[in-house]
Amino acid sequence: MIRFRNPGTQYSTQIQVIKELYTALGSQAYFTLDDMAVVIAQSRLMTAYGYAGDDAIRLSNTDQESMNSAKMNAKMYAEVFRMLGWVTPYSTDSSYPLVFTYIGIHVALSTGDCSRLYEQCVLGINNPTQLTDNMSYTEKVRFFKCALRTFIDLGGIMYKHELCLGPMSINDENENEYQSMLKTIRKIRGDKQRLVTAFSDLAASLGMKLDPVDNCTRLPIAFMKTCNWVESVTDRTLYGRSMSCLRITDHGREVYNEIKNMCDIRLEKYENLDENIQNALIRLGTYAMLQRSGYDISSVEERIKDDRKTCAKVIGDKEILFSPCQTIRRQRVESALGIHLGVGSQSQHNIDTFDSTVSEREALAQTHIWDLNIPEEAATELLTDTEDLAFLNRVIDLKKSGHSSAEIVSILFEFYSNATQTTFYPLIATLFKVMGFHCSFSRPGDNGARWDAIIDDPIRSIPIEIKSPTEEQHLSIKAIRQALENKIILLSRKTHTTTPETTTLAVGYFMPNERAEVSRLISDIKATYGYKIGIIDLYSLLSIAISILVEEQGFDKEKLYVLEGMMNARILGNRK
After folding, report:
1. Residue 31, φ and ψ in degrees, nearest 5
2. Is 352 exposed, middle or buried (0-12, 13-18, 19+ CB in 10 A)?
3. Across residues 204-227, what is the average pLDDT?
4. Across the strands, what pairs with 535?
5. Residue 366 CB coordination number (10 Å)
């Protein structure tokens, strides 16, 4: 089975990072992980221990490389960028250092929307390549082309584990193998236990635990969602139980229809051709990616005509599906394109020059970890609204389907990833009600209520500023300022009883990206006004609520009233 790594990066962040890297390192002959780590940190695109910039580099620096968060963050981006064909090894001897590719430079220099080129790069991912000699898997597949076809042939909907059992584990150029895969999945469908058994058998055959195999689905799903090929849906037709599944979009079908009849050039076919044809295919493949992405390639039209004649016996009159930067070593690609990229100054950065001390690390403001170990039953008497009951029924259905508590949290977190204010505000109120707090939310457009939700307490009411994932994925400094305003207005207008010492909350889908700035702002607000501001992400709220509903285990409620800074709560293990 193909092992897709599990980096957690979004499209917009990937584009921003490659642009920053090229601006800072484009004049170098090559760049190292140290170079990347320094640029990413100094561009404030990562934090460590609540700090960004040089502080993040100093504080993440350790003797043990695997514990160096700045370097591991850089490595995560490097792996994604190599897969997309934006960077490639400088030499044939080792994976590092790296250079930017011809396609990577186009992405880095793009001034507008480059989603079409991004889509071409995702389609370009194929196995094996000249750059994956050390991979342990042997599948020969253009995964995303195969995945789109599989979605269509299986009725448009798939569960994520079917990706592992299907297109990740076959040679897609073997039609018999492909049809056998479809037959196997169709036999599994209809019974959740058959799926669990098949997935467990797959993990055992790979010598892997279940979670690492499951994690291999995250990056391909993220790619497909970014390209708008699939969307998340709740479905009970596949296995007779409500499950979070993926459904192919109209755009996904259109993309497959466009590429299915293209001449798909893979490594084995390429390497069996004459050198002149190989060079022509490199040019045709590269220019075709750019043309389909909206680039003007009129300057190379004559070259393309000549190359098509050279390759006539191989491709006929078909369009070509071939991404040389993702398949062939850079020296050969650059030679065919008539360019030479590995030139310039030497590597500039050494992460070891950024000193750190243990005392500094320990002094940093840390995220508060809330243990879920206090016996507690759900406050069902508070759950009377339509939105409350809908959430309860969803949890009940997932539990009946055999999902563990941790799985329910993950499924729901993904389910609400595109929630608007209309859905997200009542959800947050429901989760606080499950915990036993009297919480009400404001309807979007209700200008009479300053806060988005409020916990009504006889003595210590708590205003809540909410940011739905469609407003902002990560809580921002703006949300913190609005949380402060909520506190000031509540104390001034006295519509609900509270005290200056009681916290005011900001709740969102993800924790802030700029944690250092947010932490400092919260500290400054406390020093100036004396008010506490607490930050909670959806995953933590879901973890608490599901732990109470399923495990009857809650948290020390007093901690909420005095929360200052960021909070984290997670269901550990895989409890049923």
Report:
1. -140, 150
2. exposed
3. 89
4. 506, 566
5. 14
pLDDT at residue 443 tops 80: no
Residues 279-316 have pLDDT tens digits of 999 999 999 999 999 999 999 999 999 999 999 999 99
- In Å, what is the CA distance from 400 to each residue of 9, 210, 397? 33, 21, 5
Name the 3-class secondary structure at 170: coil
Residue 470 main-chain phi, psi, to 5 deg: -80, -15
Whole-Å CA distances, 199 to 153, 161, 164, 166, 397: 21, 7, 8, 11, 21
Any alpha helices (H) in 435-566, and if so which ranges? 477-493, 515-529, 538-546, 558-561
Can you give the pLDDT at residue 576? 39
Report in angstroms the alpha-carbon separations of 573 from 130, 199, 378, 404, 570. Answer: 39, 19, 21, 9, 9
Asked whether 391 and 232 are in contact (CB, 8 A), the reply is no
**Left (φ > 0), alpha (ψ -120 to 50) or beta: where does 402 sit?**
left
CA distance 475 to 527: 22
CA distance 100 to 451: 47
Q: CA-CA distance, 177 to 170, in Å (whole number)?
A: 7
CB contact at 8 A, 504 and 484: yes
Q: Determine the length of the chain.
A: 576
What stretch of H or E contains 210? helix 210-215
**Spatial CA neighbour of 463 closest among 498, 433, 434:** 498
Q: Is residue 148 classed exposed, middle or buried when 0-12, 13-18 and 19+ CB atoms within 10 A define those classes? A: buried
Alpha-carbon dihedral of residues 160, 161, 165, 169, nearest 10 degrees? 60
Cβ contacts of 553 within 8 Å, gap of 6 or more: 372, 373, 374, 375, 376, 547
Question: What's the token pair of residue 537?
Answer: 């992400």
What contacts 550, CB < 8 A, 6 or more positions away? 395, 399, 405, 408
The identity of residue 138, as a single letter, is T
CA–CA distance from 490 to each of 449, 503, 562 (Å)?
A: 10, 12, 17
- Which structure tokens are listed for 510? 């993800």
Q: Phi first, then psi: what are they for 365, rounded to 5°?
A: -65, 125
The DSSP letter of residue 168 is: G
Average model confidence (pLDDT) for the chain? 88
Q: What SS3 state is found at 373?
A: coil
Strand pairing category for 230-235 and 98-100: unpaired
Contact 440, 429 (CB under 8 A): yes
Burial class (CB in 10 A: 0-12, 13-18, 19+), 500: exposed
3-state secondary structure 221-277: HHHHHHCCCEEEEEECCCCCCCEEEEEECHHHHHHHHHHCCCEECCHHHHHCCCHHH
Compute the half-sphere exposure of residue 4: CA atoms within 13 Å on the CB side of its CA. Answer: 27
pLDDT tens digits, residue range 42-69? 887 765 555 556 665 665 566 555 556 7
